[in-house]
Design brief:
Helix content: under 10%
Strand content: over 45%
Number of strands: 25
Strand order of the largest sheet: 22-1-25-24-23
Shape: globular
């Protein structure tokens, strides 16, 4: 895997080809994939979450509302190493947690956090390998950390963090080594698992939507390009539609991740599995 990543980023021209696809009857806004091969997709406009696996099993839950299986403008999803699913339910100002079969487990909001967090409005979340949950909180313009028991364990990304202060955070990802990556305008701010600022990665100036960190690859997605950066040696490249055979020129990218030597790419209506072609 590491050698493939190196070859991919060292190539003067990096191309992928679509090998399979999954179309949806709704407009998508984000997705997550887990080690089992399951993919979880958010359909924000219809307030739903849908999952499917390599065996073709498909299920969706949601609809507009405030119940435990309902959402109001879900913005992000994270599927953990334990296969639990965390949905950021933006307008309901909460995160809902489900098990691998999409049975409701618990809610994280101001009430369940015992008043330790004021003005809670999560935008995105991601889990560490230790089971800690990191959350972009739009009300406080900060990153919150909840421990494995769901208890408030600290905050970072505020003015106190200097170069690590966030201004317009959109998405968050955690690598296998538990480095935390926060997409903030046209840059990615990197922290250690304790929330200490490490470095900043600059991105081309455009409207970036989502980020992922897996298989030693950091991936950021904008409507017309995908940024790839090796977490091992910091080599990087940028893909456009012309680099991906099998995708029409008018499709907008929504989200992407590099996993098990494939680029998994989400557009507004379709999830594509793409293999490296040269």
């Amino acid at each position: 895997m590491f050698l493939l990543v190196l070859f991919l980023l060292q190539s003067s021209e990096t191309d992928f080809a679509v090998v399979s696809e999954k179309r949806f009857s709704f407009s998508t806004s984000a997705f997550s994939s887990d080690p089992s091969g399951r993919v979880v997709v958010i359909g924000q406009s219809r307030h739903i979450m849908a999952t499917f696996d390599g065996n073709g099993n498909y299920r969706s839950i949601g609809g507009h509302g405030v119940g435990n299986y309902e959402f109001d403008t879900p913005t992000d999803v994270s599927s953990s190493f334990l296969l639990d699913v965390y949905v950021t339910d933006f307008n309901n100002r909460r995160i809902q947690r489900f098990d691998k079969n999409l049975n409701y487990i618990q809610t994280y909001d101001e009430t369940t956090l015992s008043g330790e967090i004021k003005g809670f409005q999560p935008r995105a979340c991601a889990l560490s390998s230790q089971g800690d949950l990191f959350i972009i909180d739009m009300d406080g313009n900060r990153i919150l950390k909840l421990d494995t028991r769901g208890r408030f364990a600290g905050e970072f990304g505020t003015y106190k963090d200097g170069a690590g202060m966030v201004t317009e955070p959109k998405d968050i990802a955690v690598s296998s080594s538990d480095e935390i990556f926060v997409l903030d305008k046209s840059k990615i701010i990197v922290y250690d698992r304790f929330g200490n600022y490490l470095r900043t990665i600059s991105l081309p100036a455009t409207e970036w939507k989502n980020i992922h960190a897996s298989d030693q690859m950091l991936v950021a997605t904008a409507p017309d390009q995908i940024f790839l950066r090796s977490l091992a040696d910091e080599k990087q490249t940028t893909l456009t539609r012309s680099n991906i055979t099998g995708i029409s020129s008018n499709e907008q990218f929504v989200d992407a991740v590099f996993m098990k030597d494939k680029l998994i790419l989400l557009t507004v209506t379709t999830l594509y599995y793409c293999s490296f072609s040269k």
